[in-house]
Amino acid sequence: MHAKQYEITLPADYDMDVVRRRVAAKGHLLDAWPGLGFKAYLMRERGVDGSPVNQYAPFYLWNTAEGLGSFLWGPGFQRLCDDFGRPVVQHWMVLGYEDGGAAGAPPVAALRHRRAVPESMRTPDLAEELLTEARDVAERDGLVGVVVAVDPRHWEAVTFSLWAAEGTGRAAAEADGELFQVLHCSTPGLGALPRGQAW
């Protein structure tokens, strides 16, 4: 599995209803995309839930490299580039995915926690730590699902979770993470995602 995200940071006075309208009009286009586990259409709004920026930042979990490639090299991503400029695409190798107790419910919020992996950390220990974290997060009330992944080029770990319940802002503060609003979630291959360890 592959996780990816791009962030489009917008001016402080940008009308974020433009983003809401864009997602309302086009979000359904990936609802049946082959090879896609899920795409969470995410937004942060300056001054809301502690966000310092206006940002559109979709997060994808891909079942297949072919699905990811067909999107990234196809007309859909190019249209986004035409509208906003080509963003940096962050990419992580997925170590594991877990359903939460609210699996199947529409998520209303997402939490992303990124951190550098110390050079001294052994890779098997890193994998076990992240998989344990995913299992622990999956026990929390209101969780839809959680992904743990690593970018081995920059040695950055990410925990990304989707929530159907209120109170995620407190979790973000506790975890030193970034909180996003979920405007829509396309889930064509969610049922096919392997649960637990991804290899």
UniProtKB/TrEMBL annotation:
Q: Which Pfam families match?
A: DUF4865 (PF16157)
- Cross-referenced InterPro entries: DUF4865
Q: Please identify the protein, giving its name as recorded.
A: DUF4865 domain-containing protein
Origin species: Streptomyces silvensis
